[in-house]
Design a protein that fits this description.
By secondary structure, this protein is α/β, with parallel strands linked by helices. It has helices at about 15-25, 35-45, 65-75, 100-125, 145-150, 160-180, 210-219; strands at about 5-10, 30-35, 55, 80-85, 135-140, 185-190. The chain has a single domain, classed as NAD(P)-binding Rossmann-like Domain (Rossmann fold, 3-Layer(aba) Sandwich), CATH 3.40.50.720. The chain has a six-stranded parallel beta sheet with strand order 3-2-1-4-5-6, with helices on both faces.
């Protein structure tokens, strides 16, 4: 009998983690959804079919918490086939330079960038035990400098300094890791899960076309 592939999805405030987890379940993955704080509480209350995957409370800014998650994966599965770095936070909507608080910027970077680096460092040995390991870092068009300098782009005038720069940094980090991992079997790439049709941050959902693109990455 073929062993199921094992995936970890990280989740914070954008609500997409459960969507990714369900897609993976439908494609015969064993899934661990690592969620923090309010997200964990909300997901815990849903019950029912939710628990087809393992829900694990995680502080992505804590090495101790991530080490506990790694221990769970090691003891239960002994490997990791897919890591989806989806956890993110956003603040500072519409803020001008005088309104930016450095502590708020640091908070965003802790989850959106530093946690990604930390979890890849920690989980790399587990990924190396997979036959075809893959890492998908969830990014955003707001971190795409080419798009943000295009006045025709619907988000071009958004002032989200912490979030946008954290995603731009994530894009560069992923590019550098792609070069580093190229000689190995680990595949790493960015993926933007949100279709930008209505120009609003209030509706975070995966459209059918985007969903198909995501499925193509996990097969």
């Amino acid at each position: 009998m073929k062993t199921k592939r094992v995936a970890v999805v990280t989740e914070a405030g954008n609500g997409l983690g459960k969507t990714f987890a369900n897609i993976l379940l439908n494609h015969e993955y064993e899934v661990i959804l690592a969620a923090s704080k309010k997200s964990f509480e909300n997901l815990s209350q849903e019950g029912g079919a939710l628990h087809d995957y393992k829900l694990f409370k995680t502080d992505f800014t804590s090495l101790e918490s991530l080490t506990e998650l790694k221990s769970l994966i090691t003891s239960k599965f002994g490997k990791l086939d897919l890591l989806i770095n989806n956890a993110e936070i956003a603040n500072g909507f519409g803020q001008k330079i005088e309104q930016i608080r450095i502590e708020d910027v640091k908070q965003v970077y802790e989850t959106n960038l530093f946690a990604v680096i930390r979890i890849i460092q920690l989980f790399k040995p587990l990924l190396e035990k997979s036959d075809a390991p893959s890492i998908i870092n969830m990014t955003s068009a707001l971190g795409d400098i080419d798009k943000m300098t295009d006045e025709n782009f619907c988000y071009a005038n958004y002032c989200m300094t912490a979030y946008a720069t954290s995603k731009a940094a994530l894009n560069m980090f992923t590019h550098l890791q792609c070069k580093e991992f190229k000689p190995s079997k680990i595949n790493i790439q960015n993926f933007d899960p949100v279709a930008l049709k209505n120009c609003t941050h209030n509706s975070v959902s995966i459209k059918d076309g985007i969903k198909d693109d995501f499925i193509a990455l996990i097969k």
